[in-house]
Write a structure and sequence with these properties.
The protein is an alpha/beta fold and about 500 residues long. The protein contains 18 helices and 15 strands.
Length: about 500
């Protein structure tokens, strides 16, 4: 079975730009860590990208003692003091604060414990000179020991010594597998958001503003949540293998795995539908739903409406929010119970007006909505799937089957039409976001870029199973997890995960 493959084609032979023109803001948010920061700035001073186009902003999130600029640094380097408080603090808040003040065309986000190969930024920038919708990921290796000074590092980098700095390093097998299995994210999947890590990535200022920057609710894992939103908003991920770097030390999750996972799990479940196993069977209405369901209620019966809601609620691993279209303002007029022309509409309203999952949008008369008009109602944010239905949907329509089908085919939109010409469709949010970015006819854009299919309801295969991990993917996950283990107790965490995958394979 074909698994979902988003349409993120891009050139395969881009060369470094001979005469760059785009300005870059390097944004480094940190709290303490002066010694590592000095090495990061020394490696930035050795970058080959034109210095007149480069500005470095070190955002000091309340360091004690305060961060100071070292002798070896790029010429245009500035410290931005972030006035944190008991209620406003952390990397997400500090980065958003700094970014809101900057005007450079490209934002390059960098951790304060990175050593960059001299062409690292130039490798990012060849993509940003090609198009404006790329999110470029640097390639990194992790090292546990280093013994060079900023001056020694700068001299080594200037003389081509980057690779010789660390004969021994560690890789993150799971991260590299996510990249390799998707043809370097040309065939990105809904799991590809996990490839965005905060150590080194870049995007246009325009893209950063369009997705809203970091979510300040996140004190850890803010890059993962940003990864979900940028993926759903259709940015093209580029893991640039020639943008080499050393990460000085292990990540927090490697050194304190249990506490980090326990801290992140509830907030990840609320904001990231891509972590389905964290959301399954939740007793709470989560912040970001899996589905946005647009329902044209103008001629819908209350019975059909209740069935629709029950169908979506019957799946314990997904959640939906509803936008109900109808002449809701007319319900305020005087009426007779015996002769109520809006009887069904009034019943629908009274079933759900007290439930925050339902929003009401006024739509009067018998105006026929085109597919483009329906798609134009959607502002893509973080919800991955958009459903639409109207009238009294055919009893044969199975919404979970449509969800599974579009995941299996990789199309951008799939819909059915019943004998009464009533339409029901599901659209993939990244496909819609990219179609909206192009402008013009949204349905045609999805058709051309992703694939689109309409069928008679009697011909649609509602029984396609959800895509399951392949045997190769399963064993790769196991081997990668074994390599990461540092204590025998880690086996207790691996076993349940492996059993979950095996159960999926048996279904």
């Amino acid at each position: 079975m074909k698994t979902i493959a988003f349409r993120y084609n891009r050139p395969s032979d881009l060369e470094l730009v001979e005469k760059p023109t785009k300005s870059v803001a390097v944004i480094i948010s940190c709290r303490d860590g002066q010694e590592k920061l000095n090495l990061t700035l020394a490696s930035l001073a050795a970058q080959t990208y034109p210095k007149k186009l480069l500005a470095v902003y070190v955002v000091d999130d309340g360091s004690n003692p305060a961060i100071k600029l070292p002798k070896i640094r790029p010429a245009n380097t500035t410290i931005i003091k972030f006035g944190n408080s008991l209620t406003k603090w952390g990397k997400a808040e500090a980065t958003n604060f700094a970014a809101s003040k900057l005007k450079e065309e490209i934002f390059w986000f960098l951790d304060a414990d990175m050593v960059l190969e001299p062409n690292h930024l130039a490798q990012h920038m060849k993509w940003h000179h090609d198009d404006e919708d790329y999110l470029v990921l640097g390639w990194k290796r992790f090292v546990q020991e280093w013994n060079y000074t900023p001056q020694e590092l700068f001299s080594s980098l200037e003389n081509g010594g980057f690779q010789g700095l660390h004969p021994v390093s560690e890789v993150k097998e799971q991260w590299e597998a996510l990249v390799t299995d998707t043809d370097d994210l040309r065939s990105a999947t809904l799991a590809s958001f996990r490839t965005l890590v905060g150590a080194t990535f870049s995007m246009t200022r325009k893209s950063w503003l369009s997705v809203g920057g970091y979510n300040p609710e996140f004190k850890l894992g803010n890059d993962t949540e940003l990864g979900w939103r940028t993926l759903i908003n259709g940015l093209r991920y580029v893991p640039e293998r020639e943008a080499h770097s050393w990460h000085l030390g292990l990540t927090k999750i490697e050194t304190n795995r249990d506490q980090v996972i326990a801290h992140n799990r509830p907030i990840f479940a609320n904001y990231i539908p891509g972590f389905g196993y964290m959301r399954k069977g939740s007793d709470f209405d989560l912040k970001v739903p899996d589905f946005e369901v647009i329902v044209d209620c103008r001629v819908m019966s209350a019975q059909s409406f209740v069935k629709l809601v029950k169908d979506f609620n019957s799946k314990v691993h997904t959640q939906a929010r509803y936008r109900l279209l109808g002449p809701w303002t007319e319900l305020a007029s005087r009426y007779s119970v015996n002769e109520d022309e809006h009887e069904q509409l009034r019943s629908i309203y009274r079933f759900c007006f007290g439930d925050a999952k339902f929003a009401f949008k006024s739509l009067d008369g018998d105006q026929h909505l085109s597919i483009n008009e329906i798609l134009s109602m959607v502002k893509v944010k973080a919800t991955p799937f958009i459903f639409f239905t109207e009238g009294n949907p055919d009893p044969g329509v199975i919404y979970s089957g449509m969800h599974a089908h579009i995941l299996s085919t990789g199309n951008g939109l799939e819909g059915v039409v019943d004998p009464l010409d009533q339409r029901t469709f599901v659209a993939l949010a990244p496909a819609l976001s990219r179609a909206q970015r192009i402008g013009g006819n949204l349905q045609e854009n999805i058709q051309n870029g992703w694939g689109l299919r309409w069928q008679d309801v009697s011909q649609f295969d509602f029984g396609l199973p959800m895509p399951r991990p392949t045997v190769r993917q399963f064993f790769r996950m196991v081997f990668a997890s074994l390599k990461r283990m540092r204590h025998p107790a880690d086996l207790l965490h691996l076993a349940p995960k492996a059993l979950r995958v095996l159960r999926l394979k048996k279904r």
